[in-house]
Amino acid sequence: MAEDTGIKDSDLKSKHSRCKSFIRFINNTDRVVDVIWINFEGQHVKYKTLPPSAFFDCNTYVTHPWLFFDSETHDKLVVKSEEVFRPEPWYLQYQQGEDLPRKPGRTLVYITIPVYTLRERSLQVVRNNLSQPEDAFKLELPSTLQKELASKIKETLETQIVAN
């Protein structure tokens, strides 16, 4: 299932590779997280939904980018403070000169909440307390913020409709 996640980059897509990466994605937040794989056409494909503190193991390739979003609000989440996670080769976790194991270990990838700007976080909190886009125009805010807030509420409602 492809979906628009708001991140635009025409070069951001999976490329063919033989270099494997063995990952354990860990939801290190109190939110339900959508794990998104960017396929070979650049489409965003929901790969897995992780409850808080849950994890799943994934065999992927170093040329396959991944994104993470709050499943309910669609707010961006990060790995190592980056919106896009690009796997590294499985063998990089071992010291140079060390014998490689027969079975490679998984790289732990912690999904976290980014440090939002005060503006972003404020809009998220207000958005979460409004039910309809037109409610934003009832608030005593500059019109630019009202429009942005209405747009964010609309996006959240559309995401909830698609999910159901």
From TrEMBL:
In what residue span(s) does the von Hippel-Lindau disease tumour suppressor alpha domain sit?
Answer: 116-151
One Pfam annotation reads VHL
Q: What is this protein called?
A: von Hippel-Lindau disease tumor suppressor
Q: Which SUPFAM superfamilies match?
A: VHL
Q: Coiled-coil annotation: which residues? A: none
Instruction: Tell me which CDD domains the record gives.
Output: pVHL
Recorded family membership: Belongs to the VHL family.
Pinpoint the von Hippel-Lindau disease tumour suppressor beta domain residues. Answer: 12-88
Organism equals Cryptotermes secundus
